[in-house]
Amino acid sequence: MKIGIIGLGRMGRGIAKNLVNKGYDVEGYDVDPTSYKILSNLKSFKPLNSISESKDSDFILLLLPTGKEVIEALKELVNYKGIIIDMTTMGYDELNDVINFINNNGLNYISAKIERGPSDAEAGRLIFYVGGRKDLVDKSDKLFKDMGEYIYLGSNENANIIKLISTLLLTANTVLLAEVSQIADKLRIDKDLLVKALSMGGADSIQLRSRFPMMINNSYKEIFSVKLSKYVAEKTLEYINDYGVTYSPLLKYVSDILKLSDALGIGNKDIAEISEFYKKINSS
């Protein structure tokens, strides 16, 4: 089976490595040629010169920055007969534009919004929020299972909004942990023991166990940047407002912290670096 991947950033490269290791023929395209150099030693991977060259694939995966880039990619995939799986996080208006384009051009399209990071992509441990035509999802079942786990949520819109909400909740938890991390150095307790103690009680969370140690040890991994998280927060608030919910002060506060951190150049690796924003504020 041949898989085309459009967008070979951290997640796209991780998925490519996983699928090659599981016996798929994988080809991919990215506007940044350095992505090809990173994957140059990956057997059964073919770099492409254009998006349209991926039309010979059975499935095409889209991992692009925004819905705008998705539309541009779809224009090059008109008349494609395989299944397009869109993993791009986007806002309400962007998704509507994409769905209108899909319907007008008769493309086989489903949404699969990603949870977890690049290391999970490479290991085949991703979680997907999936929406769209059920018959297309059923045909994609084996591919999804080779990439991780998935839950079918009905419509493309459902998959997209659940992803946005999930990411914003994750980010809100991280922002709170970043505030709390400021007192870690002042406590006379081993840092590993601090994490263990907090994770044993009601404060336990995935972010506590994964991102809090980064904060208190000042050691950050490349996972999910502040810039990308800011984009997701803005799109989530747009969705919420479209549903008639106009008062959400905590989510607005989280969005503002992301904007300020990004403006200061903080968080190129991961949102855990928001703790550096608080350090800067508290030291000024």
| CATH class division of the largest domain | Alpha Beta
CATH topology of the largest domain: Rossmann fold
CATH evolutionary superfamily of the largest domain: NAD(P)-binding Rossmann-like Domain
Q: Structural class given helices, strands, pairing? A: alpha/beta
Termini, distance in Å? 57 Å
Could you list the spans in which at least 5 consecutive residues all have pLDDT below 50? Answer: none
Kindly report the spatial arrangement of strands forming the biggest sheet: 3-2-1-4-5-6-7-8
What is the H/E string?
EHEHEEHEHEHEHHEHHHHHHH
Give the overall pLDDT as a whole number.
Answer: 94
Give the domain tally.
Answer: 2
* Percent of residues in beta strands: 5-15%
User: In this structure, how is the largest beta sheet organized?
Assistant: 8 strands, mixed
- Helical coverage, percent range: 40-55%
The assigned CATH architecture of the largest domain is 3-Layer(aba) Sandwich
Number of strands: 8
Number of H- or I-type helical stretches: 14
Form type:
globular
Q: What is the alpha-carbon Rg in Å?
A: 20 Å
Topology, pairings included?
Layout: E1 2-6, H1 10-21, E2 25-29, H2 34-38, E3 45-47, E4 59-62, H3 67-75, E5 83-86, H4 92-105, E6 108-115, H5 118-123, E7 126-132, H6 134-139, H7 141-147, E8 148-152, H8 156-180, H9 191-199, H10 206-210, H11 212-217, H12 226-242, H13 249-263, H14 274-283
Parallel strand pairs: 1-2, 1-4, 2-3, 4-5, 5-6, 7-8
Antiparallel strand pairs: 6-7
Helix pairs in contact: 3-4, 8-12, 8-13, 8-14, 12-13
Describe the structure.
The chain is α/β, with parallel strands linked by helices. It folds into two domains: 153 residues, Rossmann fold; 123 residues, N-(1-d-carboxylethyl)-l-norvaline Dehydrogenase, domain 2 (Orthogonal Bundle), CATH 1.10.1040.10. The protein has 14 helices and eight strands. An eight-stranded mixed β-sheet has the order 3-2-1-4-5-6-7-8. Helix 8 crosses helix 12 and helix 8 crosses helix 13. It is globular and about 60 Å long. The termini are far apart.
